[in-house]
Each structure stands twice: as C-alpha cells, then as structure tokens.
C-alpha cells in the first residue's frame, strides 16, 4: 500500500497535523512500517498539489507554526477507489529470496539444499519471534495491530511452506538433476 | 479451574530432562524390507519446554514420538523417561511408567467409540485408580479447557472432526502428566481452533509439562521453544526461539 493512501485514510477521520499522522500511521501498522516525518510532509505536499488534501483554515497553525491538513472531496473519492480496488500482485516488491533461490539452482557449485535449510531456520526463528510478540499483546491491543502481526505470521508461514516445497521438488530426481 | 493436580507430579526433579533420547535408531522390519525410520537421533525435552518436530511425511516424526513416550522401543540407543532407562524395564513396568508419565494425542485420535466423550477423557484417570466421581470432575474441567464443555455426553462418532480432535486432546491433558506427546493435534481444525489448542499446549508447558508436538504447520511450530526438523530419520536442523529461553 502507499503511504499516500494511508495518510488519506487517517485524514478522512478529521483534520490532523503531520506529527499526528505519523504517530497514528505507525500505531495502526503495529510499528511495522516506520515513517519519518520528512516522508509525511513530502507526501502531504504531493497530495496538496494533486488537490487531495488542503491546508485546514479552521485549525490554522499551532503555536509552533505547524499546519493542519484536511482531506478534500477529491481526496475522499480517491480513498474510496483505493479501498474498492484489490491490490495487484505485480505492484508488490520483488522477493529477494525467490531470486536468490532461482539463482542458487542455476549457479554451478551452490549447495541449494544448504541455502534452503539456512533460510528455513531463519524464517522459523522470525516466525517464533512474531508468535511471541502476538502472545504478549494484551487484550486491549487494537485489532488493527493484531491483524498486522497476523499478516506477518501468515507471510512467514507461506515462505516456510514454499521452502519445504522447494526442498521436496529438488530432492526428486528429474532429467535435469538426476 | 479446579485444583486437581496431584502433588507428586509437577514440578520436575532438578534440571533432568523429562525425556532424553540418545543415539536412537529404529528399524522397522528386517533384511531387504527393513525401513530405517530413525537414524541416531538425540533429543531432550525438559520440563517447561515445548518442542515441535517438523519434517516431510515418512521422515520419522511419529516414530520419534512413540519412542519418546515408551510406546515403542528403539533398535539401538537409549531413551530415558523421568530418569528411568526404558531398556531396563519389563513390559509391565514400561506400561506402568508410560501410563503414569505421558499423555498422548495420536495422529488417528484413538477414541473409544463405545464410550462417551467424557468417559473417554476420564478413562486415563480411572486407570490411575482415581475414584469415578473425581475422574469425571477432572474430565469436565479439561473438556471445558478445550472448548467442549457441552459435548461430554456425546459419542465420538457424533462429533465433527475438529471436536473429536479436541476430545483426544482433553484425554491427553487429564491428570497432568509430566510429558505430553501430540501427533498433529491440530489436523482437523481451522486456524482459530488450531490456535486455541496450541495455546492450551503452550500453557501446559508454561505450567511445567514437557511437550513434544509433531506438526506440519509452521504457524503452530512457531509456538515452540525449539523446532526440530527431521528428514529421512535424521535431525537436519533445529531452531531455538529468541535469546531468552523458556527455562
Ligand atoms: N510399523 C511399521 N512397520 C514398518 N514400517 C514402518 C512402521 N511404522 C513406520 N514405518 C515406516 O517408518 C518411516 C517413518 O514413519 P513415521 O510414521 O514415523 O513417519 P512420519 O514422519 O510420522 O510421517 P507422516 O507425516 O506421514 O505421519 C516410514 O517410512 C514408515 O513407512
Ligand atoms: Mg506421523
């Protein structure tokens, strides 16, 4: 997802200062997506340029001269479109692990099984850590944060399954690697 | 929850693992048909520890679990359960030790169809010599723990697959054995049901039981303090959780 749409979603709840947007963004993504304040202001100025947010005249500036932003009607339309449209797989960043394994399989002299084993242990360790993190979230934790950690668990789990699959496929003799 | 824990079971005697397997080999059959299910596997499970075993089908996971609980004997190597070398025990002594020490959830569940769920769950306690009324009360308590409070009077065949699975887990939990062995206990459960069961096993480990769990599911293995990967009867890898160990 883009930071752009994340900020629009937060602004749809009411006008906010940049520092508030940053704090709320991080809180709702369980701090898995840290933002620096510079990124927030850069994004806000692009949104403003595109007419999706405007400086909030009512709120004006706070005592430190900071500006409050509000979503515009066009901004709401854009946000609705974003929620309505599924995320395309092609929009997501390429997966380094997939590239690494593909290269390991085709590069002579690389012990693919060892690459898989090392990755599997590492992925299992992060899965164990995520699970521990989830266990320590108390009941009052916001659903949004839980769901973010859940998502990371499902991803790590999928990676683990895929690694098992790779191991099984590569263990099977074929014409290419008898 | 009712306090039914017999004082002689928990906690562990100082530092000794509840089960210690050393150089364990298990060969099924003989001659050309011999299957090497385990090849020199060593594994300890301490009190308070949850250890998960993963690995492809046929890699020896169930064999390992059966050996750890004294349901099967190694071809070579040593299995020490609660300080007793299993090789030195007569069949009768072995049966007594495993009944007293271990709770099992079998891959095929093994519930007795002619007994109700509550009777199935109470059975291990009746075999312990506990009076029927008390065995029933304990069964009720663990059935509640696994979310089957209302189904104790049903027969196993009248339950869904997931409910049957919970009943088998309740039977393993009753009486608070020092060692819990669970072979794919989340098999027929959806992720929420599976999460609940794994939490129950985790709580038992945190309360001092040694838990050995076989699973194909990375998400459940991740609840363990240690994950052991088996392949062709060998331990190929193991991953311990974070810096702070559970002990
Ligand atoms: N009683 C037996 N007689 C002969 N071979 C056996 C016996 N029990 C198990 N085996 C063999 O030993 C190997 C290990 O079996 P085991 O049941 O331990 O595998 P597993 O890892 O639990 O597999 P799964 O994930 O399918 O349950 C397999 O090749 C199996 O066929
Ligand atoms: Mg098995």
How does the SSE layout of this entry go?
The complex is a heterodimer of chains A (178) and B (247).
Chain A: H1 3-11, E1 16-17, H2 18-28, H3 37-49, E2 53-55, E3 68-71, H4 73-84, H5 96-106, H6 112-136, H7 143-171
Antiparallel strand pairs in A: 1-3, 2-3
Chain B: E1 19-28, E2 35-45, E3 50-54, H1 61-68, E4 76-81, E5 84-85, H2 91-101, E6 102-105, H3 117-127, H4 132-145, H5 161-173, E7 179-183, H6 191-206, E8 210-214, H7 218-221, E9 226-231, E10 234-240
Parallel strand pairs in B: 3-8, 3-9, 6-7, 7-8
Antiparallel strand pairs in B: 1-2, 1-4, 4-5, 9-10
The structure holds adenosine-5'-triphosphate and magnesium ion.
Domain Transcription regulator PadR C-terminal (chain A): 94-170
Domain Transcription regulator PadR N-terminal (chain A): 7-80
Protein name (chain A): PadR family transcriptional regulator
| Distinct compounds present | adenosine-5'-triphosphate, magnesium ion
**At the fourth CATH level, what is the homologous superfamily of chain B?**
P-loop containing nucleotide triphosphate hydrolases
Q: What is the straight-line distance between the termini of chain A?
A: 43 Å
Structural class of chain A: mainly alpha
- What's the arrangement of strands in the largest beta sheet of chain A? 1-3-2
Helix content of chain B: 25-40%
Number of strands of chain A: 3
The CATH architecture term of chain B is: 3-Layer(aba) Sandwich
The total of helices of chain B stands at 7
Task: Give the overall shape of chain A, derived from the CA principal axes.
Answer: elongated
Termini gap of chain B = 25 Å
How many β-strand stretches of chain B? Answer: 10
Shape of chain B: globular
How much of the sequence lies in strands of chain B comes to: 15-25%
Biggest interface goes to:
A-B, 23 and 18 residues
In oligomeric terms, what are we looking at? Answer: heterodimer
Cα gyration radius of chain B (Å) = 17 Å
Please report the number of helical segments of chain A. 7
The CATH class of the largest domain in chain A? Mainly Alpha
Which series of helices and strands of chain B comes N to C? EEEHEEHEHHHEHEHEE
Domain Transcription regulator PadR C-terminal (chain A): 94-170
Pfam families (chain A): PadR (PF03551), Vir_act_alpha_C (PF10400)
InterPro entries (chain A): Tscrpt_reg_PadR_C, Tscrpt_reg_PadR_N, WH-like_DNA-bd_sf, WH_DNA-bd_sf
Domain Transcription regulator PadR N-terminal (chain A): 7-80
